[in-house]
Design goal:
Length: about 250
Amino acid sequence: MTAVKVSSKPQTVAGIRKLLARLREREAMARARFVKGAPTKEQRTAARTNLDAVRRSIARWEQRLRAEQQPTIGWRSLRHVCPWLTDADARRIAGGMGVAFRRYDITTPQRAAMAVAQMAHESDGFRTSEEYASGDAYEGRRDLGNTRPGDGRRFKGRGRIMCTGRANYTSAAREFGVDFVGAAERLAQSPYSELVSCWWWKTHGCNELADAGDFVALTRRINGGLNGLDDRQRYYARARRVARYLTPR
């Protein structure tokens, strides 16, 4: 038995499952040959090498299957909203948003389009998941829980809807079981940047405002005012054109 070769790479979940079934049959045959033993040391080594190769191939395709089964949103549609995104960045962000949208019920075209539009504005067209400013302006802000020296910089805005301040980072850490207080920069990494933002979205009643179609009220809820309303509406106009592809699937 030679090393595993895949003549054509499957592109669907069904295709990956069929391939894994064939690979597991090969693994059983390779394991039987290895257990049975071979007359020479070289043949035993070859049998072990072949078994290891089959198992590595199975592990790779199982990982691919898990990734394919994760909910996502249409990354090309995300690029329609923000055409400057690279394919790699669009795929990464879409993956995080798919998981977050599913978990926090952003599952209708209207909710998804409004969420993408608002988050695009808040994160500079998904170019960043960390506030550009230093965070010094938040130093000593007790309303944000910044009671210790350096908290302003340490807990500056991160995410797609910028989570700001020690108190909010602490709440997010409790929700997700991730130490965002000790390692604040993790909140800027996908999928946490999307998960935390969508958690905030749901717990602050944004789904209901989206259902009501009140984009202005939604902007007030997120921003506290109407800063950047025109920009948000431009993103929303783009997102509406591809809204059905922005829902998790």
